[in-house]
Amino acid sequence: MIVKKLHESGVRSEHAYLAAVGSIGLSLVSWLTSSRQENLERADRWGIFVGEWAPTFFGLGLALANYERDQTARPAGFGVDA
Which sequence ranges are marked TM in the entry (predicted)? Predict the structure, then answer.
């Protein structure tokens, strides 16, 4: 249901994949910035915190890709949307 709502609002699998890659880059940038301004332990926490977003975005991208694939494989008007 959440994937269907996201798809209907215009979010596509490519958007989720881009967000995942962006979060990996943001994790590196936040770690580098924090390591120069704060102690190393706090910098590690910032990098890990932002880096934990990537698997969520990749998972959402996979769910959206499966939904998109199912929508294109099914003829219009066939079956009932869940």
Answer: 16-34, 46-65
